[in-house]
């Protein structure tokens, strides 16, 4: 979501992300009370990664050596994106279980990252119990959400086993009891010296849970409705990301928003149209296969997930009459397409118009807490920050910036 | 939940709640970085209410003038509690709609209070848009939750009206769209100078929503299952509150927890046993009336809520055989009681054992953010802080410290 940047060097970005010189000189005793929670350089103990002038991966160096940094960036992005897309398709090929594992892994990784930021921001390294407690809460909330989903899907096969029946019957009670244990431990761990800090971290943990767990839970629920409800939305987001970058790269002139200085209106608008078109195509391609279209159902006989069914109405070809003024253009009076393709237009519109705000939010967050990433691309002037995030973060951007909204509409 | 205090004067509490003298002298330049977010006296701009030596309400003064402050406190508490209990019964008499309004009013008031604390803590008075945005989010989340509940209950009567049908069909989508508008406004309102502050307030708002709205939503859902699921749990909590105070008042010796210095083990244990006994009685009394026992159902014919039904199994008298060793004590071999009374034991146990942690949490929160309450009882040495909260806060303590867990078990 953060890909349609103007071709500017990193200096501007770095200046904005870091503290500006005139502000630096005013810290210390002159800091007014009001500024304390705003501009305090709280992560000064985290060392900056020294900017390297060229951190192109070793393998690519000989090939890319003759290019300007602008085009070098282009090629690195391209190769990087293709690798990730191939990986994505490989995971799809592996089946729904693999996708669930992927979503869960991303969720856990995101949680870990955000909690770490909290620890750094509040310098709460020596807080009693807290790291353990955060993970305990993550476990509880996941137990609750996965239980809710799984109970529906395994309900039939479980009727024989008494323990499982008990777990399902009292699932909410058990989850809540586990959460309460954590809550009580938190209260007991309150130490006078750290009261406020402990409450801050408690809040931080809960907001993190809200962001990561609820979203991945919704994504997984979608996935059970049929893999297409997972794959098409994510493809649309990836497509928007790439298209916006391409349009920004070739035509970008007009800055879009101060928060993300490299994004342009050209990228935003070009991305929008291309996403709608590609989304329409993706929908057509994926809607043809039962493997993608059918709800993921657990069959207790074969003890595995099956994706076989009579496809629902929206995945069967319908004939639509073309409006009169479009008939000369298409050369015919009717077209056949899947109703799901009309869905895809809504999804694309959403991904292109609202999705970027998820990116802006992340961008603002990064600046607010001055997050630095230790990846191999760090500091390369030709490569924008968003691409310097590790693969997993990129995937999670794709997933989370849209996850919630893309519930099946039927 | 904060009522079983030892009979000590307020001096100790005030010393603990406020800053200790030796800490005071170390502020300023000696403050280490680590302490900044912990002990910073952030609400110094909120003036302390000058402690008055006697703030007994005018009406009661002539009656209570001859008593020691210990007993004066006793009588004020007694009168206060009886007034509130009468008020509570009056509201029950007014019917389910009134109770829903009560819960909603408490929710809004709590939200307002906690948001105000956030604004004071972060000194975010001049943040663009934020107060408006917080209330907008409250509206969205309530729209979502109330819609979810109401859609179930009004579903039948609504089938005629097309607009309502549309609202129900796309309820989640509409709610999410509303939320997203708020989200986008937040992102657009981000100002460089305030980034971090704005994200703090965003998090604060969401945690507040989590605490207030989800709980009141669950309380209302319980209420629809039958008013007894609302009344008995709350009565149990009120009972535990009062009993723990009484036991603490007469027998309190051993301090329970540092966080709430006036609570005693005697109050905790005595309160527990009395709550189980009284809860058992409450359950017996309320289970006899259809008015309390029947699910609250909206009938589209009379256009009102009805509470008439054939009571479910757990609200009908059953015969239980008494264990042999208890037979001499009770003088008979069988007893008749409602299965709901057995439920009540679980509820009482929960209210007495886990509930207080809700109180400790609130107590810690109060100290962490040094909240001062401007009620007429403020500063009276004989009256503990928890009672100085206004009626609404007291009710909300009762409601929220247990709301979530007390879902019907059937």
TrEMBL record, chains A, B:
<feature type="transmembrane region" description="Helical">
    <location>
        <begin position="340"/>
        <end position="362"/>
    </location>
</feature>
<feature type="transmembrane region" description="Helical">
    <location>
        <begin position="74"/>
        <end position="106"/>
    </location>
</feature>
<feature type="transmembrane region" description="Helical">
    <location>
        <begin position="173"/>
        <end position="191"/>
    </location>
</feature>
<keyword id="KW-1133">Transmembrane helix</keyword>
<keyword id="KW-0444">Lipid biosynthesis</keyword>
<protein>
    <recommendedName>
        <fullName>Phosphatidate cytidylyltransferase</fullName>
        <ecNumber>2.7.7.41</ecNumber>
    </recommendedName>
</protein>
<dbReference type="Pfam" id="PF01148">
    <property type="entry name" value="CTP_transf_1"/>
</dbReference>
<keyword id="KW-1208">Phospholipid metabolism</keyword>
<keyword id="KW-0808">Transferase</keyword>
<feature type="transmembrane region" description="Helical">
    <location>
        <begin position="226"/>
        <end position="252"/>
    </location>
</feature>
<dbReference type="GO" id="GO:0016024">
    <property type="term" value="P:CDP-diacylglycerol biosynthetic process"/>
</dbReference>
<feature type="compositionally biased region" description="Basic and acidic residues">
    <location>
        <begin position="9"/>
        <end position="22"/>
    </location>
</feature>
<keyword id="KW-0812">Transmembrane</keyword>
<comment type="pathway">
    <text>Phospholipid metabolism; CDP-diacylglycerol biosynthesis; CDP-diacylglycerol from sn-glycerol 3-phosphate: step 3/3.</text>
</comment>
<keyword id="KW-0548">Nucleotidyltransferase</keyword>
<comment type="similarity">
    <text>Belongs to the CDS family.</text>
</comment>
<dbReference type="GO" id="GO:0005789">
    <property type="term" value="C:endoplasmic reticulum membrane"/>
</dbReference>
<feature type="transmembrane region" description="Helical">
    <location>
        <begin position="198"/>
        <end position="220"/>
    </location>
</feature>
<dbReference type="InterPro" id="IPR016720">
    <property type="entry name" value="PC_Trfase_euk"/>
</dbReference>
<keyword id="KW-0443">Lipid metabolism</keyword>
<keyword id="KW-0472">Membrane</keyword>
<dbReference type="GO" id="GO:0004605">
    <property type="term" value="F:phosphatidate cytidylyltransferase activity"/>
</dbReference>
<keyword id="KW-0594">Phospholipid biosynthesis</keyword>
<feature type="transmembrane region" description="Helical">
    <location>
        <begin position="264"/>
        <end position="287"/>
    </location>
</feature>
<feature type="region of interest" description="Disordered">
    <location>
        <begin position="1"/>
        <end position="58"/>
    </location>
</feature>
<comment type="function">
    <text>Catalyzes the conversion of phosphatidic acid (PA) to CDP-diacylglycerol (CDP-DAG), an essential intermediate in the synthesis of phosphatidylglycerol, cardiolipin and phosphatidylinositol.</text>
</comment>
<feature type="transmembrane region" description="Helical">
    <location>
        <begin position="127"/>
        <end position="146"/>
    </location>
</feature>
<comment type="pathway">
    <text>Lipid metabolism.</text>
</comment>
């Amino acid at each position: 979501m953060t890909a349609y940047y103007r071709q500017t060097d990193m200096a501007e970005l770095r200046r904005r992300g870091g503290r500006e010189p005139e502000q630096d000189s005013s810290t210390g005793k002159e800091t007014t009370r009001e500024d304390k929670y705003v501009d305090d350089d709280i992560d000064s103990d985290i060392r900056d990664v020294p900017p390297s002038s060229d951190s192109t991966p070793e393998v690519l160096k000989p090939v890319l050596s003759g290019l300007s940094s602008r085009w070098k960036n282009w090629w690195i992005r391209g190769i990087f994106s293709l690798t990730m897309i191939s990986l994505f398709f490989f995971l799809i090929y592996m089946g729904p279980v693999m996708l669930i594992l992927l979503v869960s892994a991303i969720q856990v990784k995101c949680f870990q990252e955000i909690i770490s930021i909290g620890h750094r921001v509040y310098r709460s390294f020596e807080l009693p119990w807290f790291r353990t407690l955060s993970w305990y809460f993550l476990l509880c909330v996941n137990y609750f959400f996965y239980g809710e989903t799984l109970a529906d899907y395994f309900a039939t096969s479980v009727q024989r086993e008494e323990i499982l029946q008990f777990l399902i019957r009292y699932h909410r009670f058990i989850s809540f009891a586990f959460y309460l244990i954590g809550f009580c431990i938190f209260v007991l761990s309150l130490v006078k010296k750290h009261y406020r800090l402990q409450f801050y971290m408690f809040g931080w943990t809960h907001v993190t849970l809200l962001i990561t767990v609820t979203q991945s839970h919704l994504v997984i629920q979608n996935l059970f409705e049929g893999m297409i409800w997972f794959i098409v939305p994510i493809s649309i987001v990836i497509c928007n990301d790439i298209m916006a970058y391409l349009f920004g790269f070739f035509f970008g002139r007009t800055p879009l928003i101060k928060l993300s200085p490299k994004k342009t209106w050209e990228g935003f608008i070009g991305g929008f149209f291309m996403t709608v078109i590609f989304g329409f195509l993706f929908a057509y391609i994926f809607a043809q296969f039962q493997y993608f279209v059918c709800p993921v159902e657990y069959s207790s006989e074969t003890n595995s997930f099956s994706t076989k069914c009579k496809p629902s109405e929206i995945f069967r070809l319908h004939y639509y009459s073309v409006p009169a003024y479009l008939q000369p253009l298409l050369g015919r009076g009717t077209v056949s397409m899947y109703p799901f393709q009309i869905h895809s237009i809504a999804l694309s519109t959403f991904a292109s118009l609202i999705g970027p705000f998820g990116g802006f939010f992340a961008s603002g967050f990064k600046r607010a807490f001055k997050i630095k990433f230790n990846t191999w691309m760090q500091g390369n002037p030709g490569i924008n920050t968003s691409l310097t995030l590790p693969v997993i973060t990129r995937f999670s951007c794709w997933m989370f910036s849209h996850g919630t909204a893309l519930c099946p509409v039927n």
